[in-house]
Design brief:
Elements: H1 9-12, H2 20-30, E1 35-39, H3 46-56, E2 62-69, H4 72-82, E3 88-92, H5 95-101, E4 106-111, H6 123-135, H7 146-156, E5 158-169, H8 179-188, E6 189-197, E7 209-216, E8 224-230, H9 233-239, E9 248-249, H10 263-274, E10 278-280, H11 281-284, E11 285-288, H12 296-299, E12 300-301, H13 303-308, E13 315-319, E14 329-330, H14 332-340, E15 346-348, H15 361-372, H16 379-382, E16 398-401, E17 403-404, E18 410-413, E19 418-419, E20 423-428, H17 434-441, H18 444-453, E21 455-456, E22 462-463, H19 466-469, E23 473-475, H20 482-497, H21 502-517, H22 522-540
Parallel strand pairs: 1-2, 1-4, 2-3, 4-5, 6-8, 13-19, 14-18
Antiparallel strand pairs: 5-7, 6-7, 8-9, 10-23, 11-20, 12-15, 13-15, 16-18, 16-20, 17-22, 21-22
Length: 543
């Protein structure tokens, strides 16, 4: 985590301003006659310029415009935009203050709320954010960004049948902490339109964004959602037509990435969840984060360091990254290969019962090097009973890569290895055959659920957290013939070790495991291949 003093002022105030072309088009889509408009974080006035432009080219009558901006310099720029418009004002204040004192209801709230992480908010802002979220039956925690508060507060200020149009981070679609928000939106909005992009819209930020347009409910009814995807802003402006959008009911609290799919595909997802031939990874074991050392550079060692400082007795074989796993089972040959390449293939695992004075001269020297370099003053190290003793060292049955490209590797542990937090640790319940559990992950259905359960970032990275990994659906092959299992594992292992196209191996697994062994229809398997392909390509094609 970056310290506050090392963050740019732009990031501290969440100031990534909306491209004017995008602001113009969102305004064009949502502005109607006789509206009361709120822009809760107007910055230098992108959306206000769009509104003014439309007023100048039409017969729109605007009842009032209220705009709020925290930074005085930016507020003054926005005041100049609105200076010749009647019933329009820019308020230079914290939106939290404006919200608390606001008695107005608006029928259009439009803008790009600031993306400020919790730790960069003031104490007052944190308190107000927590109050609003808790009041609306949402959890408040340190993961929640300021834009979540803005969205919830603005929906409160929206009149029935009013419209909200926000540019917000795409994490609303997929992160676990936004589950309460998704539930809130589906409860209070009758229609939600999500517009997503393959290209990043903000040149100076890696944040992937979506446009959310919502209509506030006037009575209790189901919420409809549509999710459309465009390559870039120009394609959105050229191709978008609300009349051609397909809406479907929000029936679950799942991540909204599923709404990149069609209704039939979403139905088959629900069908497999209920199918007794399948289960969750969480049903067969525990997924936990890898070892948090607090300083991987110090605690991860290569063979030269281990020998030089006599540390072998205090180390365990280490997997530090995906490229070090090689195949489907991480065995002694794989580890020795890493050692011979000079990889940091050992993890320093000194038990806290071991005292420095009981160590050899060389071992004591390595501890002293850490202290001389102030490695012991890092947060994770300094809060330990003994700074050099890494906690939570246990041997997992398998590993699952936390961040991946095409797919996350699921690898069996063949030599009592450990991993840093680049890999998740999996403990499989004793009653299950580890090799069968491993094999059951490699198929189109499980790969599709991996995409659905995880979250993607700019650049095509797929990240999956432990609780998300536990929700991945895998087939039950407990009774599969041992000889067949070994044969299929060999096929997979050969594919992975020799860096072949994983789709070739998955085609074999789909046929022999899903179709021949479980009796899943060819049509269902093909649908899941398409689901996996759709979600995977959308992520991988991100520019």
């Amino acid at each position: 985590m970056k310290l506050k003093e090392n963050i740019t002022q732009k990031k501290l105030r969440g100031g990534y301003y909306t491209p004017q072309k995008l602001a113009n088009y969102i305004t064009e889509l949502t502005l109607k006659n006789d509206m009361r408009i709120l822009e809760p974080s107007c910055g230098d006035g992108s959306f206000l310029r769009s509104i003014k432009k439309m007023l100048g080219h039409s017969n729109y009558n605007i009842e009032k415009i209220d705009a709020v901006e925290y930074i005085e310099e930016e507020a003054n720029k926005s005041k100049k935009v609105l200076e010749d418009i009647d019933n329009a004002q820019v308020i230079n204040d914290d939106f939290y203050n404006f919200y608390v004192n606001c008695k107005e209801k608006y029928n259009l709230i439009i803008g790009n709320p600031p993306y400020i992480r919790y730790q960069y908010l003031t104490t007052f802002q944190r308190e107000k954010q927590a109050e609003v979220l808790i009041k609306n039956k949402m959890k408040s925690n340190k993961l929640i960004n300021s834009w979540v508060f803005f969205l919830v507060a603005c929906i409160e200020l929206l009149e029935k049948n009013g419209k909200i149009a926000f540019v917000i981070p795409a994490e609303i679609m997929q992160v676990a902490y936004a589950e309460d928000l998704r539930k809130y939106l589906s409860k209070h909005l009758s229609k939600i339109t999500i517009i997503s992009f393959n290209e990043l819209l903000f040149e100076d930020a890696e944040q992937e964004v979506v446009v959310l347009i919502g209509t506030k409910k006037d009575k209790e009814k189901e919420c409809l959602i549509s999710n459309s995807l465009y390559d870039n802003l120009n394609d959105f402006i050229k191709e978008y037509d609300e009349n051609n959008l397909k809406y479907e009911k929000i029936l679950t609290n799942d991540k909204w990435t599923r709404y990149y799919l069609n209704e039939d595909e979403n139905n088959v997802i629900e069908d497999i969840k209920k199918d007794k031939r399948f289960r969750r990874i969480g049903d067969i074991g525990l997924v936990n984060v890898g070892i948090t050392t607090g300083n991987n550079d110090y605690f991860s060692l290569d063979d030269n360091y281990v020998k030089k400082y006599d540390l072998k007795k205090y180390t365990k074989p280490l997997i530090g990254r995906s490229s070090q796993t090689h195949g489907l089972v991480f065995n002694e040959d794989d580890w020795n290969k890493n050692v011979s390449k000079g990889v940091k293939a050992y993890l320093l695992t000194i038990n806290e019962n071991v005292n420095v004075e009981d160590m050899s001269k060389e071992q004591q020297e390595y501890i002293k090097i850490g202290e001389d370099n102030e490695e012991n003053k890092g947060y994770k190290c300094r809060i330990r009973k003994k700074w050099y003793s890494v906690p939570s060292i246990w041997i997992p049955d398998a590993f699952l890569l936390r961040r991946s490209n095409i797919y996350p590797k699921f690898v069996l542990n063949g030599i009592d290895a450990v991993s840093t937090d680049t890999m998740h640790r999996i403990k499989i319940k004793e009653k299950y055959d580890n090799k069968k559990i491993l094999l059951s992950y490699y198929n189109s259905i499980s790969f599709a659920f991996t995409e659905l359960c995880g979250r993607s970032y700019g650049g095509g990275v797929l990240e999956i957290l432990p609780k998300e990994a536990e929700n991945i659906i895998i087939p039950n092959i407990d009774d599969m013939d041992e000889q067949n299992v070994n044969r299929l594992v060999e096929i997979l292992d050969d594919n992975i070790r020799n860096k072949k196209d994983i789709r070739d191996a998955i085609n074999i697994m789909d046929k022999e495991i899903l179709e021949d062994y479980l009796g899943i229809s060819t049509n269902t398997i093909n649908m899941y291949r398409k689901i996996w392909k759709t979600l995977n390509e959308r992520r991988m094609n991100r520019k």
